[in-house]
Design goal:
- This protein has a four-stranded parallel beta sheet with strand order 1-2-3-4, sandwiched between helices.
- The chain is globular.
- The longest helix is centred in the last third of the chain and has 18 residues.
- It contains four helices and six strands.
- Helices cover 32% and strands 21% of the residues.
- By secondary structure, the protein is an alpha/beta fold.
- α2 links the parallel β1 and β2.
Length: 148
């Protein structure tokens, strides 16, 4: 929240059109900024939308006050998609603007370019160029919709 407040004060930034983008732990930090339990959404008045790539959603409340797009993979065994799917389903039931796109067969960090599967703490990380291209397009369209 403090970083967003600082950013909003910069002369090259539209302070009422802030978007937050995070990957993995960074995505979870982004969720914390607006989670009604963990964060304080009023402390970042210009924040308009959040995109979270493959976050862990366990422990987050579904009552997000801002539009949220979650991009994850069905084969993510680091942060499995189930908790995020539940969060999105609960958010929809509450009328909250939370979307989720789960890419079939995509792993954690599916958009990190590599020509081979890597392992982190025993979890497979495989680059998926099709999921990456689609997720990037969805992220850009989402921000274009909410930041204007």
């Amino acid at each position: 929240a403090a970083a967003l407040q600082w950013l909003a004060q910069q002369p090259y930034v539209k302070p009422h059109e802030l978007g937050l983008l995070g990957y993995s732990a960074g995505a979870m930090a982004g969720l914390d900024v607006v989670d009604p339990i963990a964060g304080s959404p009023a402390s970042v008045p210009g924040l308009r939308a959040i995109v979270a790539y493959y976050p862990g959603c366990t422990g987050h409340h579904a009552a997000f006050p801002l539009p949220l797009l979650i991009l994850d993979g069905s084969a993510d065994d680091y942060f499995p998609p189930g908790p995020c799917q539940t969060l999105a389903s609960n958010a929809h039931a509450m009328g909250r603007p939370v979307e989720i796109i789960t890419y079939p067969g995509a792993t954690h960090a599916f958009n990190q370019v590599s020509n081979h599967t890597r392992y982190m703490n025993g979890h497979a990380l495989t680059y998926d160029p099709q999921a990456t291209a689609d997720a990037d397009a969805k992220m850009k369209a989402f921000f274009a919709q909410y930041l204007h």
